[in-house]
């Protein structure tokens, strides 16, 4: 059974639903970029955290820190930050004439004149492990010495949006790697959740939001993926499905080489409000009812749309079978949470769930709020029945 993805009523409210990390909590004097650029930077956002539980019982968020140029436009050019191997692994600035760029978005700019859409970022993202209390409500430590930053040309514009899964005796983390070469997914592994080894690229250009299932199915690793494109073929007249971006599936014997699964995954419906795109959120976790997956759906609105978190249950033996999907959004943006940091807001209506941890009778869900801060929500397991 598949329930239509139409938002009916308001999302649930929760006893614990708070911001635990905001941009002012980040000490950029300890950033990987510190001392490289010779210009002022600031924290544009600390958001979209992967989540895991350490051996000491504390939670650990792997937070995306978007470090931006305070003044990206100077000397008649707009600038981007880039890691460069030829400069000894240092960070440098690239400038483009302002008249060749659309600079309406503070996060990025689009370059005019080419046959394809080309853009650059006014920030560079790196990953900061932030340790929390077991309930996720308070910060214990910022592990700047364990920060994950670009180290190869395919990451030269940054690493973004960690998703962390425990499979067997190790942690697996997927991140988006941004560069002119490709917009790819690379894999990191760890035995303790704090020290990470890069295993290389596992999905190629513009296949985003890869989340690995927390467990094997018939001896294979499984993952949700989201290949992007500008061309989609139409479903036949009368179909309930809407053509466009969807959550697909892939499986692997070693977590390094992935084969797409023939069955489609989670798709937008013709009569639902999710018409712009949808993609993987938290790593699927196994429950007595099947694999629980939290994912984001986007309703068209203004520039980036309205991001909400939804949930589905997938068959434990064949995740290409969607058993159930919640009829209402699990999470929506909460303007009351971001009101104290209103002066730093540049987006609205965005919640992007990226981490989940079991806490007995509830799940602890970690999300990015407004591409600005980290949000922790305690969601009772009864919400998924």
Give a written overview of the molecule:
The chain is mostly beta strands and 385 residues long. It has a single domain, classed as Tachylectin-2, Chain A (5 Propeller). Helices cover 1% and strands 46% of the residues. It has one helix and 27 strands. It has one helix at 335-338; strands at 17-21, 41-53, 59-69, 73-74, 77-84, 90-97, 101-102, 108-111, 118-121, 123-132, 139-142, 159-167, 170-178, 183-190, 197-203, 207-212, 221-227, 248-252, 259-260, 277-280, 285-287, 290-299, 306-314, 322-325, 351-358, 362-369, 373-380. Strands 20, 21, 22, 23 and 24 form a five-stranded antiparallel sheet that branches. A hairpin with a 6-residue loop joins strand 22 (290-299) and strand 23 (306-314). Mean pLDDT is 93; it is low at 1-9.
Summary, kept brief:
InterPro entries: Glyco_hydro_beta-prop_sf (IPR023296), Mannoside_phosphorylase (IPR007184). The protein is 1% helix and 46% strand.
Class by helix and strand content?
Answer: mainly beta
The major beta sheet can be summarized as: 5 strands, antiparallel
Distance between the termini: 13 Å
Unreliable sequence segments: 1-9
Tell me the strand percentage band.
over 45%
Number of strands: 27
CATH class: Mainly Beta
What is Rg? 20 Å
> How many domains, as an integer?
1
Helix content: under 10%
Shape estimate: globular
CATH homolog superfamily: Glycosyl hydrolase domain, family 43
Give the CATH topology. Answer: Tachylectin-2, Chain A
With helices defined by DSSP (H or I, 4 residues minimum), what is the helix count?
1
Mean pLDDT: 93
Topology pattern, helix = H, strand = E: EEEEEEEEEEEEEEEEEEEEEEEEHEEE
What is the name of the CATH architecture? 5 Propeller
């Amino acid at each position: 059974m598949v329930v239509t993805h139409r938002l009916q009523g308001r999302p649930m409210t929760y006893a614990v639903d708070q911001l635990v990390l905001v941009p002012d909590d980040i000490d950029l004097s300890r950033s990987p970029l510190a001392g490289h650029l010779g210009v002022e930077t600031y924290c544009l956002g600390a958001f979209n955290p992967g989540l895991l539980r350490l051996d000491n019982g504390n939670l650990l968020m792997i937070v995306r820190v978007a470090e931006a140029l305070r003044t990206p436009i100077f000397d008649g050019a707009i600038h981007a930050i880039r890691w460069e191997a030829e400069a000894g692994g240092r960070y440098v600035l690239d400038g483009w004439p302002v008249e060749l760029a659309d600079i309406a978005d503070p996060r990025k700019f689009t370059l005019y004149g080419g046959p394809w859409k080309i853009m650059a970022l006014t920030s560079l993202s790196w990953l900061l492990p932030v340790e929390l209390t077991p309930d996720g409500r308070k910060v214990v430590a910022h592990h700047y010495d364990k920060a994950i930053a670009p180290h190869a040309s395919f990451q030269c514009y940054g690493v973004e949006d960690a998703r962390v899964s425990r499979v067997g005796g190790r942690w697996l983390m997927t991140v988006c790697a941004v560069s002119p070469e490709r917009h790819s997914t690379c894999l990191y592994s760890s035995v303790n959740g704090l020290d990470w080894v890069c295993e290389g690229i596992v999905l190629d250009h513009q296949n985003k939001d890869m989340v690995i299932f927390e467990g094997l199915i018939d001896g294979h690793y499984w993952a949700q993926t989201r290949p992007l494109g500008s061309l989609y073929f139409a479903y036949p007249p009368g179909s309930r499905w809407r053509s466009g971006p969807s959550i697909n599936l892939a499986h692997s014997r070693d977590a390094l080489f992935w084969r797409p699964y023939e069955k489609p995954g989670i798709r937008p419906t013709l009569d639902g409000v999710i018409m712009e795109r949808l993609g993987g959120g938290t790593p699927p976790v196994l429950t007595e009812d099947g694999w629980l997956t939290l994912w984001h759906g986007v309703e068209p609105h203004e520039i980036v749309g309205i991001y909400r978190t939804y949930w589905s249950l997938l068959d434990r033996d064949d995740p290409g079978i969607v058993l159930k999907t919640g009829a209402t959004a699990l999470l929506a943006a909460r303007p009351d949470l971001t009101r104290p940091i209103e002066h730093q807001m540049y987006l609205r209506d965005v919640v992007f769930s990226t981490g989940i941890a079991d806490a007995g009778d509830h799940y602890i869900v970690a999300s990015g709020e407004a591409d600005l801060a980290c949000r922790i929500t305690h969601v009772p397991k009864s919400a998924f029945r």
